[in-house]
Design a protein that fits this description.
With 200 residues, this protein is α/β, with parallel strands linked by helices. α4 links the parallel β5 (129-134) and β6 (162-166). 31% of the residues lie in helices and 20% in strands. A six-stranded mixed β-sheet has the order 2-3-1-4-5-6, sandwiched between helices. It has one domain (19-199): P-loop containing nucleotide triphosphate hydrolases (Rossmann fold, 3-Layer(aba) Sandwich). The chain is built from five helices and six strands. The protein binds guanosine-5'-diphosphate. Guanosine-5'-diphosphate binds at residues 28, 30-36, 48-49, 51-52, 78, 134-135, 137-138, 168-170.
Amino acid sequence: MGNQLSERAPGGPFLPGLAQSLHIVVVGLDSSGKTSLLYRLKLGEFVETVPTKGFNMERVRLSGGGGGGLYQVWDVGGQDKQRPLWKAYARRTDGLVFVVDAADTERLEEARAELHRMARCPESQGAPILLLANKQDLPGAMTPAQVEKALSVHELSPSTLLHTQGCSALDGDGLQPGLDLLHDMILQQRRSQRQSRKKR
Ligand code: GDP
């Protein structure tokens, strides 16, 4: 599955405290599991994917937890030629999900460079980041803390809201807690933006 645009779910009720569905952009290196995560969220099951050329977009309605509601999720291709497009998709996004294959230790440096590039780009300024350490089901997968260290998260700007969460698109573990964290960060971000507007 993949490489198709579908909008099967209608627009609808919203998250408490938010006026519309959330616009979430999912980025990460190719094969990190972005498309699998998108369809795990959409369909509640693991589906075989093909590498994303361009993007996939799905409207996903999640129930329960602080992060319940309607999400518009963009999964943007991760091959190096497609990465310059990330910035364009990140424009005016509510939150970014950066997916890492936690079992692939050889590409951590590449993932680190892309995460830092993305966090610095003006288009995504202020958007909270959920760092997903995916493929936790695989033996030898790094823990979220190890991924955070390998990606030098502490070197990002202190104003960047970021949480790291371990997950598996294969069995779905960790996804709901991750989205709850992202939802909380988005609310926090909006509150602080409102406060700084009032001060002006
Ligand atoms: P993308 O290029 O980032 O969209 O990655 P895909 O979603 O196409 O996944 C790349 C490969 O990793 C596919 O063979 C998936 O079946 C596999 N994969 C994705 N997520 C997981 C996971 O959580 N666990 C395992 N074991 N394999 C995964």
